[in-house]
Amino acid sequence: MKIEIKGKPYKVVLKDDTFISGDNAVWGCIDYNKKEISITTKEEKETPKTVLHELIHGYLYECGLTVYAHDETLVEWFARHFEDISKSAIEIVSHIEKNKAKE
């Protein structure tokens, strides 16, 4: 499968097992040079968060924010809170649209 991140094509590769990063087993990784995102399908429960985590890395990198793209703490924070932030944004926009419709 291929996707685009800020106009750059990335290949998405599904793997059966986890990856080793240093001393840790991880569920996904991104290679900016190869333009490739690898995701393990072994931990189905973790797959959506892992996909989001790797996409955040990619978007930060392709936007020129390379220092932040390599910041695992920052990327993981956004991956964990993205759904809540999105829900709040949708709620606010919906409220604004309803109020405009009443005018």
- Would you tell me the structural class of the helices and strands? alpha+beta
- Residue ranges: pLDDT <50 for 5 or more in a row? none
Radius of gyration: 17 Å
**Can you write the helix and strand succession as a string?**
EEEEEEHHH
Largest sheet: 4 strands, mixed
Give a verbal description of the structure.
The radius of gyration is 17 Å and the shape is elongated. Helix 1 crosses helix 3. The chain is an alpha+beta fold and 103 residues long. It is 50% helix and 26% strand. The longest helix has 31 residues. The strands form 2 sheets. Strands 1-2-6-5 form a 4-stranded mixed β-sheet, with helices on one face. A two-stranded antiparallel ribbon has the order 3-4. The N and C termini lie far apart (46 Å).
Key terms:
single chain; 50% helix; 103 residues; elongated; alpha+beta
Chain-wise SSE layout:
Layout: E1 2-5, E2 8-15, E3 19-21, E4 24-26, E5 28-31, E6 36-40, H1 47-62, H2 66-69, H3 72-102
Parallel strand pairs: 2-6
Antiparallel strand pairs: 1-2, 3-4, 5-6
Helix pairs in contact: 1-3
